[in-house]
C-alpha cells in the first residue's frame, strides 16, 4: 500500500510541474503586453469579455464595450483611453 501511495504521489507531482510550466509559457507569450478594456472595436476583441456573454475573440458586437479587451503594449492602455481589469469590472457593475 505504501508503494502505491508513493508512486501516485510522484505521478501527481510530475503532472503538477507540467501544469505550472504551461502557466509560465502563457505569461511569456504575452510578454510586454497587458489587457486594455474599453478600446476594442466591434469584432476586434482578443478574447472572452468580463460579463460572460461570449467566450472567444472577434465576437463583440459594439465598439468600445467596457467589458471587451485587447492586448496592448504595457503602459499604453491609459493613453488609448482604456481601463485596467479592476476599473473595467467597476464600470460593468454600474
Q: How does this model look, in words?
A:
By secondary structure, the chain is of the alpha+beta class. The chain folds into 2 domains: about 1-30; about 30-94, no CATH class. The chain has helices spanning about 1-30, 85-94; strands at about 35, 70-75. The N and C termini lie far apart (about 55 Å). Mean pLDDT is about 80; it is low at about 20-25.
Low-confidence parts, pLDDT < 50 over ≥5 residues? 20-25
H/E series, N to C? HEEH
Count of alpha and pi helical runs: 2
N→C terminal distance: 56 Å
Radius of gyration: 19 Å
What's the layout of helices and strands?
Elements: H1 2-30, E1 33-37, E2 69-73, H2 85-93
Antiparallel strand pairs: 1-2
List keywords for this structure.
94 residues, alpha+beta, 2 domains, two-stranded antiparallel sheet, 2 strands, 40% helix
In short:
This protein is an alpha+beta fold and 94 residues long.
Amino acid at each position: 500500500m505504501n508503494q502505491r501511495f508513493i508512486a501516485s504521489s510522484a505521478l501527481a507531482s510530475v503532472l503538477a510541474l507540467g501544469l505550472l510550466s504551461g502557466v509560465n509559457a502563457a505569461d511569456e507569450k504575452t510578454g510586454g503586453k497587458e489587457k486594455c478594456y474599453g478600446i476594442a472595436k466591434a469584432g476586434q476583441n482578443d478574447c472572452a469579455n468580463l460579463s460572460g456573454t461570449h467566450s472567444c475573440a472577434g465576437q463583440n458586437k459594439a465598439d468600445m464595450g467596457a467589458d471587451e479587451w485587447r492586448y496592448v503594449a504595457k503602459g499604453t492602455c491609459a493613453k488609448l483611453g482604456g481601463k485596467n481589469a479592476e476599473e473595467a469590472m467597476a464600470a460593468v457593475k454600474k
